[in-house]
Design a protein that fits this description.
2 copies of one chain form a homodimer.
Chain A lengths: L18 H4 L5 E5 H5 L5 E7 L10 E2 L4 E7 L1 E6 L2 E6 L3 E4 L8 E3 L6 E7 L6 E2 L6 E3 L3 E3 L8
Antiparallel strand pairs in A: 1-2, 2-9, 3-10, 4-7, 4-9, 5-6, 5-8, 10-11, 11-12
Protein name (chains A, B): Cupin domain-containing protein
Keywords (chains A, B): Metal-binding
InterPro entries (chains A, B): Cupin_2, GPI/OXD, RmlC-like_jellyroll, RmlC_Cupin_sf
């Protein structure tokens, strides 16, 4: 049925990041609402960040738009322009190809929740703060192209 | 900048519905966040329903996925399966081609606010309750194909 029962949708904190960069997202618990409900034009993630958790490593996608709306709690959006507090109802948009790395960080002592919209990564993704790059079709590698091991 | 200042984005209650069906959405005030922020893979509308207002006439799209997340207040989601109260944090998904007409109705005495995601209509859209149909490339007409006038 169209109204979603979130409790019936599996929640995971899985990540494809290599171990040295995975700690930041260990407390990021998400549900894939789009695929669970039959949407295939865009993905929708329902994300809870535990205290200390980040939404991702700071990044920007060459080929995928992203949109975020906060539902509860508080996070800090960090991008090239500075830090911006995000609270329930606040929205942020990240057009594809705009070279402004972004991340939401939960710096408080309570969970925060947001919904993120965007297609799965199918293009290069840039990580300005760390020695990692998502190469189209090759997954995560160091910026020089060598693998993590 | 990625974080959106909603107050700077124009708000409108415009509709393409013919006058006999436009009354239901007169109290639907929305901002097009996606186009205002440079997104073009999907649209994002930030919608306030005044008391009595509907999100649309009850409808379903042949070719466009839709997703809704409530931000504040309360609305009733009406679809073929019945009525479902939607409150802050509740989500609903409407896969393209699924013949289950849906609408959010504000039956309370306070505003409600939600975000809706989906591409602009480029396919036929069905309105099970009224004598209207969106014909691909032709706009709104009566179900027999005749125009409104």
């Amino acid at each position: 049925m169209p109204k979603l029962d979130l409790d019936t949708i599996p929640q995971t904190n899985a990540t494809g990041y290599p171990p040295e960069y995975a700690g930041a997202v260990e407390g990021r618990w998400y549900r894939r609402l789009g695929s669970a409900s039959g949407l295939n034009e865009f993905g929708v993630s329902h994300v809870t960040l535990r205290p200390g958790a980040w939404s991702s490593q700071r990044h920007w996608h060459e080929g995928e738009d992203e949109f975020v709306v906060m539902l509860s709690g508080e996070a800090v959006l960090v991008d090239d322009e500075g830090e911006h507090v995000m609270r329930a109802g606040d929205c942020a948009a990240f057009p594809r190809g705009e070279a402004n790395g972004h991340v939401l960080q939960n710096r408080g002592d309570a969970d925060c929740v947001f919904v993120a919209v965007g297609r799965p990564s199918a293009s290069d993704c840039h990580y300005p703060d760390i020695d990692m790059h998502l190469f189209e079709g090759q997954g995560f590698r160091r910026k020089d192209g060598s693998g993590f091991d």
